[in-house]
Amino acid sequence: MKLKAQGAFEYMISYGWAILIVIVLGILLFSLGVLNPSQTPSANGFTILRPVSWSFTGGNSHQSNVTVALENVAGQSLVLYVNDTNKGSIKFKKGSSLPCYFNGTSGITVTDSSGNTVPVTSNKVSVPVGGIITISGLIDGNGNGTADSNCGGLINAGYRYDVQLVVEDEYQIIKKDNGLITGKFV
Description:
Immunoglobulin-like, eleven-stranded antiparallel sheet, two-stranded antiparallel ribbon, 1 helix, 13 strands, 41% strand, elongated
């Protein structure tokens, strides 16, 4: 009887550790977004400039290269503030982290739907009625190129960025457009 009890105990201990390790790895992979199928790409809530395509490059937890194509659905010409300390900036925020900003206007490129470079003048860019612009650049915690915030993530990990855009309409009225962008880092 003692040998059977000892054998059962050793069996439980041996397989118990293996099961515990598998459970911990599963929880870790799920929390990183690798096993989380709910991180399908989506953009919700935008009413003035709607994201039509985007990409966030992973590999670094503090910074990310971002490319986002925005379509002007407001029915009037707009001016988008890219990185203006007085009026506002494009702001990306992950959960309770500090906000992330583009690394200055010199570190970004803006193109129109034909691939032509759009000039960034006084930290803002014009977006014609129905036009699509694509903004590419590095985002970090304070827009100065230093890795000081949770602005990136691991490749294939899921992300959820609350995005705030600051625009000025043709009547020179400042408006904020907010929304949520989700997906996986590439």
